[in-house]
Design a protein that fits this description.
The strands form three sheets. Strands 1, 2, 4, 5, 6 and 7 form a six-stranded antiparallel beta sheet that branches. Strands 8-9-10-3-11-12 form a six-stranded mixed beta sheet, with helices on both faces. Strands 14-13-15-16 form a four-stranded parallel beta sheet, with helices on both faces. It starts with a strand and ends in a 5-residue tail after the last helix. It has three domains: 226 residues, Rossmann fold (3-Layer(aba) Sandwich), CATH 3.40.50.300; 99 residues, no CATH class; 226 residues, no CATH class. The longest helix is centred in the C-terminal third of the chain and has 22 residues. With 615 residues, the protein is an alpha/beta fold. A hairpin with a 2-residue loop joins strand 5 and strand 6.
Length: 615
């Protein structure tokens, strides 16, 4: 079985009823700090308990806004129960549309009618909370393995009372297989409890221990007791009559798990992996009962390549048909998020969950395949952003952060992620943020910035071939990939066609005012600045370029001349954007209004949109 739904009400940041849905296997919660990920993890721990037997105490701070007049309600719904699980929870199940569900209703109520005031916990089952709670024995099968963030993993694997290592090893089936201990008999292949008896016997009969006992007896008899008192001492080993499980636990609590490395002492990252390996051993039980893992920020102390290896191995393990383990994980790592299947990711934004599984987004089946192939760490940071701007090429990717900063909309300060889709796939990335549920939109402003891709009529002659002076001189449409303004019969329909690719909900498309980024920058008022940078890149005299520029009479011709350097591949757009960014920073720092007046409107509007929270 697996957790399919968690419903939270009045718990910490979840003041109102909030519903999370989960899939079998791996589930990854992503989102910025304080979005509600840890509260969700803790809500599951409170209801199910943890395998380390830690006590989950409800505090006043667990009530949303510390309002104890209302109870905390957490409901966890399990589906796809195995036959053994159905038998275990038979009296607690709910039948709905031909399927059996286990519905646990956990309620924490603060009582002011008793002294001292305190919280009491009630557990029930069923849709109407009218079914008796599972027995204590049955509930033990639901306990989750919890890996906390920034934990001291090495300390957990050290020997000691109730050590985590002893708990994990004690769960191994048939752990006590072997022969019993019989004094004087063969001691090979002893069971663990027999090793306990043997060690006790060896300790008790050690000659030095016997000498100590005799010395104590001599002192007692010769110096302390009366002549007619017959008292003897005997040094023995405690707990020699303990039950089998107690004997085994005593032995296991003496075990340390250490890592032998040719690099010397290991660090926190390796200790973290070692701890996770042990926990996976505990949970990968190929039997008819399911296990559950809650992992917070597994990337802590782990470098990039190990992060990728870790998440891929967990994902592959969860996908095995004979493994009944469900993992619910939180992360702040774009690298880790980039290799998780999109359908397994839930964005937690402003205390609301937004699953990226099919039927929840506008993504189509082939979108999932495409994005999982091309979604890298630089793009996956959009899962954590307050605003996202999606661009089509490296020029925009290099220029827009500088432009935004000069306009007073610094992307870093505003939590904006920039995604460069490199010419294709813009609409696919946009659909990640578009929901099928129109009543529950993801409140992240997303700007898709795209070129209009219509040349002014004068551009072919200036940018491509000097013989292309009129429509009659152009190659046939089948032999070229460009078009000019006079060939567009209905510009509104053309623009609507571009908008239809990605526009909708909080995703807005911003189309260049005229042609492309570089053309529009020149047309709007930055042509002379661009000439300076072009001259530096080409090593030509700026006056020569400026003189040629001045020969053209219309704004369209002048901007086309500037763009001809890119169209003819005389200058790399990326190289230009990098140098132009430096030039803009030096010239227009603290000149917001002057700079803004020289920019294309669509760029200003897009940057402002993604930098302004949606109300």
């Amino acid at each position: 079985m697996h957790i399919c739904t968690v419903i939270i009400n009045n718990f910490r940041c979840y003041e109102n009823k909030t519903i999370f849905t989960f899939k079998k296997g791996l589930n990854v919660l992503v989102g910025e700090n304080d979005s509600g990920k840890s509260a969700l993890i803790d809500s599951i721990k409170y209801v199910l308990g943890t395998t380390d037997q830690n006590w989950q105490r409800v505090n006043i701070s667990d009530y949303s806004n510390e309002d104890t007049s209302k109870p905390i309600n957490i409901t966890i719904i399990f589906s796809d129960l195995t036959l053994d699980e159905k038998a275990t929870f038979m009296e607690c199940l709910t039948l709905k549309k031909g399927k059996y569900y286990l519905i646990l209703n956990w309620e924490a109520k603060y009582l002011t009618t008793i002294m001292p005031n305190r919280t009491v916990i009630n557990l029930s089952c069923g849709l109407k909370k009218d079914i008796t709670a599972p027995s204590s024995e049955a509930r033990e099968t639901l306990r989750t393995t919890y890996l906390r963030p920034l934990r001291d993993a090495a300390a957990q694997m050290k020997a000691g009372r109730n050590s985590r290592l002893s708990q994990i090893v004690s769960s191994i089936p048939n752990l006590n297989d072997g022969k019993p201990y019989v004094p004087g008999k063969d001691i090979s292949n002893l069971s663990l409890s027999a090793i306990f008896d043997l060690s006790n016997d060896l300790l008790k009969n050690n000659n030095k221990i016997k000498e100590v006992n005799d010395s104590i007896n001599n002192i007692m008899t010769g110096q302390m007791l009366l002549s007619n008192e017959n008292i003897q001492t005997d040094i023995s080993v405690s707990n020699t009559d303990a039950i089998e499980n107690k004997k085994i636990n005593n032995l296991l609590e003496k075990l340390d798990l250490t890592v032998i490395s040719n690099k010397g002492n290991i660090g926190l990252g390796t200790s973290n992996l070692m701890s996770m390996a042990c926990e996976l051993l505990l949970n990968n039980k190929n039997n008819n009962y399911s296990s559950f893992m809650l992992i917070e920020e597994p990337e802590a102390h782990i470098h990039a390549q190990r992060q990728l290896k870790l998440i891929k191995s967990i994902q592959e393990q969860c996908n095995k048909s004979d493994v009944n383990t469900q993992v619910i994980m939180t992360t702040h790592s774009p690298l880790l998020s980039s290799v998780v299947h999109l359908k397994n990711i839930t964005i937690v934004n402003n205390k609301q969950p937004y699953s990226l599984s099919p039927n929840n987004t506008k993504l189509e089946d082939n979108d999932y395949k495409y994005l999982e192939k091309y979604l890298d760490a630089t793009k996956a940071n959009m899962f954590f952003a307050r605003g996202v701007i999606i661009v089509e090429g490296p020029a925009e990717a290099l220029l827009f952060p500088t432009i935004a900063e000069l306009l007073g909309y610094d992307f870093t300060n505003n939590g904006v992620s920039l995604v460069d889709v490199r010419g294709i796939g813009l609409s696919r990335y946009a659909r990640i943020f578009q929901r099928t549920d129109e009543e529950n939109l993801l409140n992240v402003p997303v700007a898709c910035v795209t070129d209009r891709d219509i040349m002014p009529d004068c551009a072919p002659k200036i940018c491509i071939n000097k013989d292309y002076s009129t429509l009659d001189t152009f190659p046939s449409k089948s032999k070229r990939r460009w078009k000019v303004e006079s060939e567009i019969d209905d510009i509104d329909s053309y623009m609507d066609g571009i908008l239809s690719r990605a526009d909708g909900q909080n995703v807005k498309t911003f189309i260049s005012d005229y042609w492309t980024l570089e053309y529009d920058l020149a047309y709007s008022g930055l042509a002379e600045d661009m000439i300076i940078v072009i001259e530096n890149l080409l090593g030509k005299n700026v006056n020569a370029i400026k003189s040629e520029y001045d020969k053209y009479t219309t704004p369209e011709e002048k901007a086309s001349y500037i763009y001809s350097f890119f169209r003819r591949n005389l200058i790399s757009k990326a190289d230009f954007a990098q140098s132009f960014s430096v030039h803009l920073e030096e010239k227009y720092d603290k000149c917001i209004e002057t700079f803004k007046s020289k920019l294309p409107n669509y760029i200003v509007d897009a940057i402002k949109y993604v930098s302004t929270p949606i109300q």
